[in-house]
Design goal:
165 residues, DUF6933, DUF6933 domain-containing protein, alpha/beta, 5 strands, 6 helices
Length: 165
Protein backbone atom coordinates (compact mmCIF):
# COMPACT_ATOMS: atom_id res chain seq x y z
CA UNK A 1 0.00 0.00 0.00
CA UNK A 2 1.13 3.52 -0.81
CA UNK A 3 0.38 6.27 1.70
CA UNK A 4 0.16 9.86 0.49
CA UNK A 5 0.21 12.53 3.16
CA UNK A 6 -1.76 15.51 1.90
CA UNK A 7 -1.74 19.09 3.07
CA UNK A 8 -4.97 20.69 4.28
CA UNK A 9 -5.03 22.77 1.09
CA UNK A 10 -4.89 19.61 -1.04
CA UNK A 11 -7.64 17.88 0.95
CA UNK A 12 -9.85 20.95 0.42
CA UNK A 13 -9.27 21.01 -3.33
CA UNK A 14 -9.51 17.27 -3.93
CA UNK A 15 -12.17 14.75 -3.07
CA UNK A 16 -9.75 12.57 -1.08
CA UNK A 17 -11.08 10.88 2.03
CA UNK A 18 -8.72 11.41 4.94
CA UNK A 19 -7.84 8.20 6.76
CA UNK A 20 -5.81 7.48 9.87
CA UNK A 21 -2.26 6.33 9.34
CA UNK A 22 -2.29 3.26 11.54
CA UNK A 23 0.29 1.26 9.61
CA UNK A 24 3.95 1.29 10.44
CA UNK A 25 5.37 0.70 7.01
CA UNK A 26 8.57 1.54 5.23
CA UNK A 27 8.98 5.28 4.52
CA UNK A 28 9.91 4.22 0.99
CA UNK A 29 6.21 3.57 0.34
CA UNK A 30 5.08 6.87 1.83
CA UNK A 31 4.77 10.12 -0.07
CA UNK A 32 3.77 13.73 0.68
CA UNK A 33 1.73 15.91 -1.68
CA UNK A 34 0.88 19.59 -1.87
CA UNK A 35 -0.82 22.04 -4.22
CA UNK A 36 0.97 25.22 -5.24
CA UNK A 37 0.32 28.06 -7.68
CA UNK A 38 2.73 28.86 -10.48
CA UNK A 39 2.18 30.39 -13.90
CA UNK A 40 -1.46 31.09 -12.97
CA UNK A 41 -2.15 27.37 -12.60
CA UNK A 42 -2.70 24.94 -9.76
CA UNK A 43 0.15 22.45 -9.68
CA UNK A 44 0.81 19.38 -7.59
CA UNK A 45 4.11 18.21 -6.14
CA UNK A 46 4.40 14.63 -4.89
CA UNK A 47 7.56 13.66 -2.97
CA UNK A 48 8.79 10.35 -1.59
CA UNK A 49 9.51 10.49 2.14
CA UNK A 50 12.65 8.37 2.09
CA UNK A 51 14.42 9.45 -1.10
CA UNK A 52 12.83 12.88 -1.71
CA UNK A 53 12.30 11.75 -5.32
CA UNK A 54 9.47 13.91 -6.61
CA UNK A 55 7.43 14.83 -9.60
CA UNK A 56 5.33 17.85 -10.38
CA UNK A 57 2.07 17.87 -12.30
CA UNK A 58 1.36 21.25 -13.90
CA UNK A 59 -2.15 22.51 -14.56
CA UNK A 60 -3.91 20.09 -12.22
CA UNK A 61 -7.70 20.44 -12.12
CA UNK A 62 -10.42 19.08 -9.90
CA UNK A 63 -11.30 16.33 -12.41
CA UNK A 64 -7.75 14.94 -12.15
CA UNK A 65 -8.48 13.89 -8.57
CA UNK A 66 -11.31 11.55 -9.65
CA UNK A 67 -8.82 9.02 -11.08
CA UNK A 68 -5.91 10.02 -8.90
CA UNK A 69 -4.64 6.48 -8.23
CA UNK A 70 -4.16 5.85 -11.95
CA UNK A 71 -2.71 9.33 -12.44
CA UNK A 72 -0.18 8.78 -9.63
CA UNK A 73 0.93 5.42 -11.03
CA UNK A 74 1.15 6.76 -14.61
CA UNK A 75 3.33 9.75 -13.74
CA UNK A 76 5.44 7.87 -11.22
CA UNK A 77 6.16 5.24 -13.86
CA UNK A 78 7.00 7.86 -16.53
CA UNK A 79 9.39 9.68 -14.21
CA UNK A 80 11.11 6.48 -13.07
CA UNK A 81 11.50 5.36 -16.71
CA UNK A 82 13.04 8.75 -17.55
CA UNK A 83 15.66 8.08 -14.86
CA UNK A 84 16.65 4.85 -16.63
CA UNK A 85 15.24 2.53 -13.98
CA UNK A 86 14.57 -0.97 -15.34
CA UNK A 87 10.94 -1.86 -16.02
CA UNK A 88 11.11 -4.85 -13.66
CA UNK A 89 12.09 -2.62 -10.71
CA UNK A 90 9.39 -0.09 -11.59
CA UNK A 91 6.71 -2.79 -11.77
CA UNK A 92 7.89 -4.29 -8.49
CA UNK A 93 7.48 -0.93 -6.76
CA UNK A 94 4.18 -0.08 -8.46
CA UNK A 95 2.66 -3.37 -7.29
CA UNK A 96 2.59 -1.69 -3.88
CA UNK A 97 0.33 1.00 -5.35
CA UNK A 98 -2.61 -1.37 -5.72
CA UNK A 99 -4.24 0.82 -3.10
CA UNK A 100 -3.51 4.32 -1.94
CA UNK A 101 -4.38 5.77 1.43
CA UNK A 102 -4.60 9.52 2.01
CA UNK A 103 -3.55 10.83 5.42
CA UNK A 104 -2.58 14.14 7.04
CA UNK A 105 0.96 15.39 6.65
CA UNK A 106 3.22 14.49 9.55
CA UNK A 107 6.84 15.03 8.49
CA UNK A 108 7.98 18.65 8.55
CA UNK A 109 11.29 17.66 6.99
CA UNK A 110 9.57 16.35 3.85
CA UNK A 111 7.33 19.43 3.75
CA UNK A 112 10.44 21.62 3.90
CA UNK A 113 12.06 19.65 1.09
CA UNK A 114 8.90 20.06 -1.00
CA UNK A 115 8.93 23.82 -0.38
CA UNK A 116 12.58 23.96 -1.45
CA UNK A 117 11.81 21.96 -4.60
CA UNK A 118 8.95 24.30 -5.53
CA UNK A 119 11.29 27.28 -5.08
CA UNK A 120 13.91 25.56 -7.26
CA UNK A 121 11.22 24.95 -9.88
CA UNK A 122 10.32 28.65 -9.85
CA UNK A 123 13.90 29.43 -10.87
CA UNK A 124 14.15 26.91 -13.69
CA UNK A 125 10.58 26.79 -15.02
CA UNK A 126 11.16 29.71 -17.36
CA UNK A 127 13.40 27.46 -19.45
CA UNK A 128 10.39 25.18 -20.00
CA UNK A 129 7.60 27.67 -20.74
CA UNK A 130 5.06 27.97 -22.26
CA UNK A 131 3.21 25.38 -20.21
CA UNK A 132 1.35 24.08 -23.27
CA UNK A 133 4.72 22.97 -24.71
CA UNK A 134 6.42 22.11 -21.43
CA UNK A 135 8.47 18.94 -21.18
CA UNK A 136 7.56 18.19 -17.58
CA UNK A 137 9.66 15.01 -17.52
CA UNK A 138 12.85 17.00 -18.19
CA UNK A 139 11.90 19.51 -15.52
CA UNK A 140 11.27 16.71 -13.01
CA UNK A 141 14.62 15.09 -13.92
CA UNK A 142 16.39 18.37 -13.29
CA UNK A 143 14.61 18.74 -9.94
CA UNK A 144 15.53 15.20 -8.93
CA UNK A 145 19.17 15.91 -9.64
CA UNK A 146 19.20 18.83 -7.19
CA UNK A 147 20.94 17.99 -3.92
CA UNK A 148 18.88 17.57 -0.77
CA UNK A 149 21.01 18.85 2.09
CA UNK A 150 19.03 17.01 4.78
CA UNK A 151 19.76 13.64 3.13
CA UNK A 152 23.23 14.55 1.80
CA UNK A 153 22.37 13.24 -1.63
CA UNK A 154 20.44 13.54 -4.85
CA UNK A 155 16.84 12.22 -5.05
CA UNK A 156 17.39 10.41 -8.36
CA UNK A 157 20.41 8.52 -6.99
CA UNK A 158 18.70 7.79 -3.69
CA UNK A 159 15.64 6.39 -5.48
CA UNK A 160 17.85 4.11 -7.57
CA UNK A 161 19.68 2.92 -4.45
CA UNK A 162 16.38 2.29 -2.64
CA UNK A 163 15.19 0.23 -5.62
CA UNK A 164 18.40 -1.80 -5.50
CA UNK A 165 20.00 -0.44 -8.66
Amino acid sequence: MITISCTKKLFELSSFVEELDTEISDEFFKWHANIFRMAKKNNLIIMNNKTRFCFILFGIKKEHFKNFNQLFVKYLKENLQAEGIPESKINEYIEQANSIKFVKTYDRSVLGSMTDMVKTTEFIVEDYLPISEMNIIDLNKKNNHSPIVKLKGFPDQMMKAALGI
